[in-house]
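2024-03-11 09:14:02 INFO worker-7 job=invfold-0412 stage=load source=structure_tokens
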């Protein structure tokens, strides 16, 4: 089993390297041809050169008519878990080109506790966020987040079976659990990619399992340091429907969650590599959480917290006036369409 584990780990790493630029979505914004000549954007690995559509903007364009494209489970899990996804996305944010192209907004429901920031020699990165009550006075959950594959050393150290980051993840959870400030406050572990593998590790490992109430995994790695075992209660797996690690998880039998705690999202049509990017899934979860709010409140015109996060976000794919105009047009067309329905909420309760 260990040999098979290592071979598949190596295969995943090589696959990511070989796909390279071809893993990006096809150009859809017209950058490829300019006065009959190919644009440099066609040869760029800058993913935002290939992004387009209202999903990258801040308008509520998904509600009644598009609710049918999301199962009730997918909407509800997005509504329940988008804050954990946001916390896990923020730990991965860097002030580089990609980071400037995809910057997510803040919310008063999440407060960063910088005291617990970790960035060690072995590639381990961890952070702690407090999930606050709507009035901001109470800490409802402590969110321990783990970074994903920000660096190539993460892939090589973690995926060849060297468990250094697993130990670091357990140590962070235990440190937080012993903080008097958080006494009696449930701990939630969360992460994208390799960070998802660390999140499920601390939920499954005997040393930390009782400390972690829930684990939320987003496009998770199939490697959790504890091979085998049945799905674990209170583990949630949210993923893009075609992301690259899906087949690897299935092959390895990394069936972390019960069926009712899984959901896939396919609003953004992309390649397998791009589908693994955190900002692709994060955007879809924010829109899905807003759809869930719209369904649960029966069309409350007030913006949900998820929509407010979107409005505070900055995506390069929606920075031009044309992009914003197209997004507003899509939102207006959606509102007009559902206004003509006898029951605009018909898809809120149907699979």
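2024-03-11 09:14:09 INFO worker-7 stage=emit residues=351
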């Amino acid at each position: 089993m260990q040999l098979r584990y290592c071979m598949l780990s190596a295969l995943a790493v090589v696959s990511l390297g070989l796909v390279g630029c071809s893993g990006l979505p096809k150009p859809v914004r017209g950058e490829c041809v300019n006065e009959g000549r190919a644009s440099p954007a066609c040869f760029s690995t800058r993913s935002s050169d290939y992004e387009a559509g209202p999903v990258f903007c801040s308008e509520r364009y998904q509600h009644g008519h598009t609710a049918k494209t999301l199962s009730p489970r997918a909407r509800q899990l997005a509504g329940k878990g988008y804050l954990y996804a946001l916390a896990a996305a923020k730990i991965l944010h860097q002030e580089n080109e990609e980071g400037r192209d995809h910057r997510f907004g803040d919310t008063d429901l999440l407060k960063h506790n910088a005291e617990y920031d970790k960035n060690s020699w072995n590639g381990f990165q961890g952070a702690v966020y407090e999930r606050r009550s709507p009035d901001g006075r109470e800490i409802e959950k402590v969110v321990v987040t783990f970074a994903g594959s920000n660096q190539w050393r993460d892939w090589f150290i973690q995926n060849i079976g060297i468990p250094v980051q697993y130990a670091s993840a357990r140590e962070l959870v235990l440190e937080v659990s012993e903080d008097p400030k958080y006494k009696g406050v449930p701990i939630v572990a969360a992460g994208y990619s390799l960070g998802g593998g660390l999140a499920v590790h601390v939920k499954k490992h005997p040393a930390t399992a009782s400390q972690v109430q829930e684990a939320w995994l987003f496009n998770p790695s199939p490697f959790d340091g504890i091979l085998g075992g049945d799905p674990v209660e209170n583990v949630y797996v949210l993923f893009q429907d075609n992301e690259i690690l899906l087949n690897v998880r299935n092959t390895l039998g990394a069936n972390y969650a019960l069926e009712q705690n899984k959901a896939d999202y396919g609003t953004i049509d992309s390649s397998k590599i791009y589908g693994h990017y955190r900002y692709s899934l994060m955007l879809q979860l924010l829109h899905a959480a807003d759809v869930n709010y719209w369904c649960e409140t029966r069309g409350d015109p007030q913006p949900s917290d998820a929509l407010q996060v979107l409005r505070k976000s900055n995506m390069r794919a929606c920075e031009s006036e044309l992009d914003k105009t197209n997004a507003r047009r899509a939102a207006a067309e959606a509102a007009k369409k559902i206004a003509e329905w006898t029951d605009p909420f018909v898809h809120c309760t149907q699979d």
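2024-03-11 09:14:09 INFO worker-7 stage=report msg="The chain has one domain: 2-348."
2024-03-11 09:14:10 INFO worker-7 job finished
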